[in-house]
Amino acid sequence: MNTVDPNLPLKPSEPKNVTVIGAGLAGLSASVTLARRGFSVTLIEKNAYLGGKIGAWPVRLSSGETQFVEHGFHAFFRHYHNLNAFLDSLGLRKNFRAIEDYAILGLKGQSFSFNGVAKTPLLNLLSMAKTGVYRFRDVFFHPKLVGLLAMLRFDPGKTFQRFDQLSYQDWADRLGLPPSMRLMFNSFSRAFFATPDRMSTAELLKSFHSFFLSHDGGLIYDYPTRDYQNTFLAPLQKELEKFRVKVLLSTPVEKIQKSPGGWQVLGRDYAYVVLAADAAASKRLLEASEGLEQADLLTRVSGLKASQGYAVLRLWTDRKLDAQLPGFVITEHRDVLDSVTFYHQIEETSRQWSQKTGGGIYELHCYALPDHLTSEAEI
Ligand SMILES: Cc1cc2nc3c(=O)[nH]c(=O)nc-3n(C[C@H](O)[C@H](O)[C@H](O)COP(=O)(O)OP(=O)(O)OC[C@H]3O[C@@H](n4cnc5c(N)ncnc54)[C@H](O)[C@@H]3O)c2cc1C
Fold first, then answer.
1. What residues line ligand 1, using a CB cutoff of 6 Å?
2. Residue 205 sits in which domain range?
3. pLDDT in the model for residue 157
4. Which of 59, 161, 198, 337 has its CA 20 to 30 A from that of 68?
5. Is the pLDDT of residue 1 over 70?
6. Ligand 1 mean position to 113 CA, how many Å?
């Protein structure tokens, strides 16, 4: 909530308190980082659990066993430099493993997998042809080759000026994007929680640049081999305790007020506020707040659109799918299915359960729900 001044020292010279609103990954890492630097931190979370979208909770199976279930399987890419450095500072990535492969499966039986794709930018583009995502002749002799080259030219200012008001679907239609590329980018769009008709072309180009062209970490990502409670939340909780971070769960913040010494939140004064709630909640919170001088911040946050809804379903089955597939597959969008994670192939407790019972554990994700589906029963 305060303008960042890089000239200020990293550690306060006198006691300063700060409140962090929202205990997702952003709020947890802000809390730990600030507490390590000597701030007195209060972390306030609306939910009864830590972690936000990487939260986890125990479920009791019909067999009487208890297993932890997380909010949803996550891919941790190698170019998440800040996040990886933070997780390393806690020693949390020792339980991560590289996914050997993952695939996009098309409705017509197409299958594209990514383990052979080169890591070096530009060479990775060429080697992508080996996966079948595109054919050289479809691209290099494409009648609108110049338009396609926009994919290689990301500029934060110009790309947004030119493409932010254009949906990815319209852009792909205008260009006549080859079908396999379209299938891949449709999945990409949905993985960012928007159907192609609602995805800004500028956002898609930005993501393509950041995930593919701006680093040499490759497309193979890492994932935790244990549930998120054991992988992230328990060690993070310990770190919060070690640095005496005060954690308030089940405590929604409704508004923030400017006070003489900083900010008032839930009746207490803080020198600083870190707003780490999700976009929709931040928007509501700022709009209900009083005395905010940062009209610019308010305008920017008010302009944010919430992404479409998502759904996650974890299934324990009495047998396993008879197919040789990697632990994570993206499906060409069909109704509400965008991806399947084969938990018994990637997570330790699930693997043990599967060995014992012969069953499988599958997690189905939908990243961009149709608007008319609002209740769990309908989904
Ligand atoms: C199913 C699924 C799969 C995903 N897969 C991937 C993936 O593979 N790779 C990847 O990089 N990303 C993935 N993501 C996205 C990733 O989870 C998020 O980008 C990331 O976790 C966001 O962290 P955050 O802390 O910014 O927000 P959140 O996790 O949303 O945390 C915000 C917190 O603020 C709290 N809050 C909101 N309002 C208030 C209030 N008024 N008062 C107090 N607290 C409040 C919320 O309860 C929440 O705990 C996935 C997301 C989902 C849902």
1. 21-27, 44-47, 52-54, 72, 74-75, 252-253, 276-278, 281, 285, 310, 312, 365
2. 116-213
3. 95
4. 337
5. no
6. 27
